[in-house]
Amino acid sequence: MADVASIFGASGPLARTIANFEQRPDQAKMARLVWEAIQTKRHLIVEAGTGIGKSLAYLVPVIASGKGAIISTKTKTLQEQLVNHDLPLLRKASGTHFTAVCLKGRANYLCLKRFRDFSTRPLFVFPHEIKYFRKIQNWATRTATGDRAELSQLPDRLAMWHDICSQRDLCTGQKCEFFSDCFVSKAREAADKAGIVIINHYLFFANLALQLSSDTSMLPQRNLLIFDEAHNVEDVASQFMGASVGLGHINDLVNQISRQIELEKIEVEGLVSALTKVQKAGSEFFSHFAARRDGTFKLTNEMFDMHVLDGRDELLKQLKGLARLLSDAASDGIDVFGPLSERCLEMGNSVRDVCDLDNQELVHWAEARDGHVQLKATPICLADTLAKHVFAKVPTVILTSATLSSDNSFKYIKSRLGASRPLELMLPPSFDYKTQALLYIPRHLPLPDNPRFVNMAAKEIVRILQKTRGKAFVLCTSISNMNALHELVSTKIKQRCFLQGEMPNTALLKEFRRDVSSVLFATASFWQGVDVQGEALSCVIIDKLPFAVPSDPIIEARIERIRSQNGNPFYELQVPQAIIALKQG
Ligand code: SF4
I need a surface site. Which of 18, 132, 219, 378 has the fewest CB within 10 A? Predict the structure, then answer.
């Protein structure tokens, strides 16, 4: 293989294919190191600033190596860019034949069996969804993939989709009458055969959790794994590597079983009463936590008095009884009850985990919203798990993002993710910020915890927006600041002011791009993965440094853990985390 970097040269295949191709030495440098990591079976961390073209810099050596790879991204936007733009472009430029597919979580695919069942007796929680059902019926007859992304008009939140998409605990696999046409199995088969498989971090870690609990995997084995947008890996992994359970999960389980009983006209002695008992035990157990205010709070031993522990034991007993009934019925030929029985047992395990406050590796906490509460157990540190089950298992793992370093070092990200002795490369953004951008820090404002801060910041924001004539994001670190600043500023400027939450995020972005002079007030979800090109986004205003809230139970537990190891959590966790978040913003 000739020097892989020559592909990026002035007379290389990319220059011959891409109109106005721009040679970027850093892009070639990154490609060379990715190639080296693949050949020498080393891990690699690359911070590639904006504008370098990092996706081509890893795709070219992956394709040139001829080795299979899994590429995981956090956002749909990047996934779509890889599938619809970068890979077709490289196919054209290289003239090489390679296969690449996008594999999504099973809930993205239509389940033919559930769709047939639903169509027989449609039940709409929201009557306005009937119009979408007609669209889906029409689409279902011609789709080759069953991927809901093909239906761009479908709203992100569609209650009905929950009744017709594929679900692990309602899928009987090869025993299903639709198995030969099943979209999920077709997608997995295609992924098994493909050279490059594009997934997202959610699917990767949901799969890892499944692998660790049941030794089964939905993903093909590959010796090369690339995490793009790798600064999000710890957050996403934390969501899947612990446990989470609430009354909503219990009710959902009971409803799924009841629906099967109704659809299949199943009669199993004692089943209906077992469902009632599970629901009753669930309501009683979770009612002990429901009175607390909205937000997150840490679970403490004092919260688990005798009543609560009795409630937990009763719930576990009823879940176990239900699991046994379902598993017996499955052995008698009611196949769909097999996976549902498994789900009862898994739910029992989750209840046990969230109540096991003696497990020092997990932080036990709860999230209350609108009177509903979910109990959670989240790993305090994932480094050992990832080191053992990801970095030690896959010969080459590449972590890349525009923001991975803090203080010119990868120490933070390596320690959080358990990546030991990787190759490292830090490439600055290709933009000349000194001449192309202006950084303004108003020094006359009081500190953010001062009661006058919001009013004074609003006045300053109005002044800035009058100069830029809108065209800005105002990114806030809390919902209360976002609402207050929006209220104070929107009445003082001529430009249209959008507020996060007033419509779905994708629609909001579309409107923001369309109305070039508009201003968008937003929080966390707009800090990253958002692409607005051109004049519409000429200014970004940040209300304060994005330090994570120290009273957040996960952050608090991580701070305590570092302190107990004689470390300094401010410099080892809070500052690096804030720097990375700020760079994203
Ligand atoms: S195999 Fe599973 S996902 Fe596929 S159609 Fe049947 S039940 Fe649905």
Answer: 18
